[in-house]
Amino acid sequence: MIAVVDYGAGNLTSVARALGYIGKPCRVTDDPETLNRASHVIFPGVGAAGGAMENLQSRGLDQWLRSWFASGKPLLGICLGTQVIFDYSEENKTPCLGLIPGRVKRFPPGTQDEGRALKIPHMGWNGVAFAGKHPVFAGISREAEFYFVHAYYPAPAEAGHVIGWTDYGLTFCSAVAVRNLVAVQFHPEKSGAPGLKILENFCTWDGAYAE
Amino acid sequence: MLSKRIIPCLDVRAGQLTKGVKFQGNVDIGDPVEVARQYYEQGADEIVFYDITASADGRAIMIDVVRRVAETIFIPFAVGGGIRTLEEMRQVILAGAEKVSVNSGAVKNPDIIREGAKAFGSQCVVLGMDVKKVERTKEIPSGYEIVIHGGRVYTGLDAPWWAKEAERLGAGEICLNSIDADGTRDGYDINLTSLISTNVSIPVIASGGAGEPEHLYDVLTRGHADAVLIASMVHYRTYTIQEIKNFLHDRGVKTRLAW
Known about the structure:
Chain A is an alpha/beta fold. In chain A, about 25% of the residues lie in helices and about 30% in strands. Chain A has an 8-stranded mixed beta sheet with strand order 2-1-3-4-16-15-14-11. Chain A has a 4-stranded mixed beta sheet with strand order 6-5-7-13, with helices on one face. Chain B is globular and about 55 Å long.
């Protein structure tokens, strides 16, 4: 069973619908017992880091996510879910889960591209330069683009954890891979065929990855 | 680098497109879900549905359309038209729309923007602005006034001020429609788009007047738009989305070419 972690962070139905479309029905739940029975866990979310961490803590899901990550079973972070796996987010000055070392930073105001101030949030389709081979990103063309909407971006402490880079005024980390964890800043469930392919790959991944 | 978005707009009344969209073999398709699927497969970056139904029955039908679209296409889509309350926003979002566009409802009750952003996040709230050219006055120093009810009612709001105010209240994006250019196919209002887009830090979608790919090029470059709304030029099959994207790409505008 694929499980989607429900912690009151926005509308999770789009992830569930995308999984249904690719023939991988899921349970959307905040119940640790149900989550424990899953083979793969997806940790999505939109909203702000502060509220997300409060919701996770009040449901005991912060501890649950740490133990799931330690179990070695596949875990996929999406957007805000990706941001709160780091140590700290500048958004609401929030201490986060600390599954992997690093911080989440805001796009600096006045960031420019070709002399024009960039719009914040970074909203729309952008490319990802994938570094190295990972089963979850297998079969994704170099020209593929993904749908982003975010004002903060992950800055992992260890360069070896980064598996995808994206340019928006600056070059930021848009995908990380550490052991049984893959996390992306974009929305695979809203990124057309390449996004669905990533979800499909994740659902058949055994969680093994040698960096 | 971020791609400029090409967004087809579909008008829906009582669950059917108000004008059929021509596809292969000039077959007229009136089902918004089927047309959305075709545009999704042809590379639309996003789709906007504009519900022009007034009745409560019509609203329920639209929610069903939204639900079926959400099960069919996996790109963001927005729904607008007559949305006035947080509850109406919630229904549309829970049915699967990524974004909700508020227009007259926000002019009458600007708090809907703040409440919507708080409940669902700024990225869900699009401010739709209908704008008409008027004489420059003390009230309307830009010479661009916000109008509602399809351009019949003047609001006394200066367009650049309203755009800024909506951003402050938490709107995540602006869909800027020139009533003067709408339906002319003579091109977008470049001055208006540039004026608004350079005055806010949120993305601006240009709307009204598209007839040729050249018009899209102009508003995405000189007009500083982040995205463009298109309707008849693709609905009547004058151009395909692929042709439009190739044209823009050849002129140096980054678009999403692989999907």
